[in-house]
Structures are given as structure tokens and as C-alpha cells.
Design goal:
Helix content: 40-55%
Number of helices: 12
Structural class: alpha/beta
Number of domains: 3
CATH architecture of the largest domain: 3-Layer(aba) Sandwich
Shape: globular
Radius of gyration: 22 Å
Order of helices and strands: HHHEEHEHEHEEHEHHEHEHEEH
CATH topology of the largest domain: D-Maltodextrin-Binding Protein, domain 2
CATH class of the largest domain: Alpha Beta
Strand content: 15-25%
Length: about 325
Amino acid sequence: MDFEGLESFLSVAKTKSISKAANLLHITQPTLSTRIRKLEEELGFVLLTRSWEGVTLSKEGYHFLPNAVQLLQELSNASFRLTGADATQHNYSFKTISNDPKVFRIGMNIWLAPIFTEQIITEMALSFPDIEYRFVTRPTNILKDLMEYECTHVNIFYQNEKETPFTSTPIYEDEMVLVCSKKDYAAIKGDPKNVGLLNKPYLVFDNPVLANNIRFITSAISHLDVHRFQEVDDLNILASCISKGIGYSILPASIFQHYFLQSYAASTQMVPFSGSLWTLPIHLEYKSDPDALFKGPIQSIQNNLLQFFNKVNVS
């Protein structure tokens, strides 16, 4: 896939103008048009529709847009993992495919979906039964970009360093914990600092949720003096590897409680770090001037989640 073509396509989708997109990328208009034409040839369909009124995305362009965004974001995540450099300094933004403006769109990190989905569904059914809604599960950075173009109305995610102009409310500090097998728990005597005694790999969960919090991952690996690694790209595989004693990992406590305890309670163990060494803040974010139709649901979901975690803290 042509990176420059994707970059050019997204710039046009953002600015809705060939000239503005070319200026944004510091290239000439013919160069930008050539890049997009090559991308269209590679894909086998037209991305843009040109007329005297300007340029718009074709039906195929709207359909392809989220894939283009995901491809560029994955390249960014790969750069973080391989070099540690800030590869997201370029602001790849976008406009999502056709969405009904009357549909309330709720963005969430996929890891948080098992925790919040049922609560939100219940709240919407009780308080806003006439409002149609849709869940959008994406990594934090993508959710933040989606909100910029009103592709989501409220986002719930693990906060990171990427700043936004939106209203952001802290919901909960999710403690990061060591997760290992029961046998490995006994071997390290319940102390995370002893993981070196296991001579087993740290299972690196190749997931954008944690890739968006690269500073935490680097700090955790350094603190535990990890020297062996094994990459895993699926939560089910990660859980199975841990339960079988292949290795260990560090995950949010809520994920262990809502996922591992469902299927792996007998074979895995959560090990807190002394003094709650690391936490990932869960935030709820929305625009300061949301659509009037969705102000009520946003406030209701926020209050509901705050009450839920207040009960968790008390208990």
C-alpha cells in the first residue's frame, strides 16, 4: 500500500480541497493528484469525485476511509514499538463514512467494552429508549481523532499524552498488575520483583490500547529488569499462554477481573505492585458543545460510571 497515497487521500478528506491538502503536505497540486491516482489504480476503484463545486469522497472513498486511517495508525504504532520515536507527530486526521447524525455514537477502547457495555445499554434503555446509539471500539488515539470530526459523541478510553481540546473527565485510575500462572505466583513468592527467577518471557501484548501508552510499557519493563520477550496480538492467546505458564504480562486490573476471572480463575493470579506503582487513568471525553440531542445521554453515562467506580472504591 502506497503510504504517500494514503497520506494524500486523508489530507483531502480532512480539508475537502485539493489545493488546501497540497499546501498542508507542502507539495504541488499535480503531485498530490498523481499520488491519489496511483493509489486509486492500486485499489481498483475511484476515491474522489471532482466537480466544479469542489472535491468529495466517492462512495468507495467513504467506505475505504476508516481502513486508510487504521493502516496509517498501525504504521505509527509499529514505529513506537520498533524505535520508541514519536511517529505520530504528523496529524493524520479524517472524516468518517456516512453516519446518521441522529445516531448517538459511543467510542470505547476494546478492553473497556466488557466493563462498560452492559451498564451503558441498561442506562440508555431506562433513560433514553428513543435514542438510537452505536458503539465504536478503537484505540485511544483513533477515538480522539474520530471525535474531532464528530464520528463519536462521547469517548471512554485509557488516557494518554495526546492532547485534545475536548472536555475530559477522569473516571477511574485502573491499577496495572502483574498477571501470571498460579504456579509462577508460588515461584516468585507473590513478589513481582522476583519474575527474573522464572526465566520466562514477558508477554508483550501487541495491542494499540497499550501501544498508545508506550511510556508505561517502557517503565514497567525497565523496573522489572525484563530481558526475554514474546509478542502476542490477541487477548485470548495471551490468557492461554499465561494460564499454561509460558510467560507473564502486565495488564490493567479491570481486565483481569472482567476477563481472566471468567475463564482462567483457577490457573491465573493477579499480583499488585507495591504502592500501586502504575495506573492507567480511564477518562470520559466529549466536546464542550455537544449536539443538544446527546447532552442528556452524555451526562447520564458520565454520572453512571462515576457512581459505579465510587462503589468499587468503597468496597
